[in-house]
Structures are given as structure tokens and as C-alpha cells.
Amino acid sequence: MNEKGFFSRYFPHGLAGVFTLLWAILAINPVMRDVWWAENLPIIIVFLLLVVTFKVFRFSNLAYGLMACWLILHTIGGHYTFANVPFDFVTDFFGFERNHFDRLGHYSIGFYAFPIAELLTRKRLAKPVVVYQFSLFAIMALAAGYEIIEWWYAVMAGGDAGIEFLGSQGDIWDAQTDMLADTLGAVTTLILFRFSGIRANETALTKKQSI
């Protein structure tokens, strides 16, 4: 096997290894352990789901790379709490009044529109117009649902933990802006998907595996 083929074949494995190492390091002595658990629960669920389904349906390397962006950013946010991630160089450069690392995290959630579109396309589960609509609306629904979960946790946890998990930093439009960031991330990656060359019944990666 040539070097290019080897890299392409084992890219998801290497990515998983790097992420696991990063997650383990950032699991040590987080700023607030209760907030860390709340932030890391979805990370653990998504990562394990990707691991378990890998042999059933293997996404493209591009899809795995995009999905890793959210996993990594959210892991960092869980360690520091999103409002306290060392992001001052960006805040100072643009003259922002708040830490916008959480916006970057929400934008990366939208990247999951790409694997949704890839799954629907390669399995011929929908026509192209429906693929794009469903992928976008799925992310928008997820964004709204997550904001509700944040609200519930903040109310139940209360105190500093609730405030840090909510991460609004005094912004009254925080929830709406977060949902917009999710949506923009989805739009961006769906445009990328349009030019990615992924086609229905692509068997190079799946080797005729079925869901």
C-alpha cells in the first residue's frame, strides 16, 4: 500500500487517537468539574457513536475531519468553561466585549450537516433538494434543542455552574446568536458538500456495507 493510500485508510483512526489523547489531558483538573461533566456528556455520546458505527458506515475523511472540529472545540470549552477559554488574542484584536469562543463552538456544530448529507446521498435515502433541506433543518432543530437543554441545566444546577454552562456572558441575545452560528456552520459545509464530489452508491469507503 502506498503512503497516500495508507494515510487515507487510517486517517479516522489517527484522528480518533489524537482526540482521545487531547480529551484525556483536558479531563485533568478542569475549571469546574460539574460543568465539565455536563459539557462532556454529548462529546462522549457522539464519539462513541462514531466508533461503534465505523464498520457499519464509514464516512469520508473530510466528514470525519469536520466532525472532529466540534469534538475538539467543545472539549476545550468543557475544560475551561466556554466563557473562560484563553481567547483574549481574538477578543482584543477585534475589540469584542465578550469571549466569542462559544460562537466558534456553535459554528462547528453546523459542520455535522456534512455527514448527514453524505449519509443521505450515499445511501440514496433522498433526492438532492431534500438532502440539503433535511441536513440544514436537522442542525437548526438540534441547535434549538440544545439551547433548551442549556436552559434546563442552568435552572437545575443554579449558582456558578448554571451560569458557566449557559455561558451567555450578559448577552440577552445569546441563545439566538448561538442558533444563528449553528445555522451558518451548516450552510457553509453544505456548500462544501456541493463541491465535494460525493455521489450516491459510493463504495470506495463503505465496500458495500449497509446501515
What does this structure look like?
Mean pLDDT is 88; it is low at 202-211. The protein is mainly alpha-helical and 211 residues long. The protein is globular and about 50 Å long. The chain has 9 helices and no strands. 71% of the residues lie in helices and 0% in strands. The longest helix has 30 residues, at 128-157.
Helix and strand layout, with pairings?
Layout: H1 3-26, H2 33-52, H3 61-80, H4 88-94, H5 101-109, H6 113-122, H7 128-157, H8 159-166, H9 174-194
Beta percentage is: under 5%
Helix content: over 70%
Q: What is the overall pLDDT average?
A: 88
The major sheet is characterized as: none
* Coarse shape: globular
Order of helices and strands: HHHHHHHHH
Number of helices: 9
Q: Structural class of the helix and strand makeup? A: mainly alpha
Q: What is the number of E strands?
A: 0
Radius of gyration based on Cα positions? 18 Å
Q: Roughly how many Å apart are the termini?
A: 28 Å
Low-confidence stretches: 202-211
In short:
The protein is mainly α and 211 residues long. It is 71% helix and 0% strand.
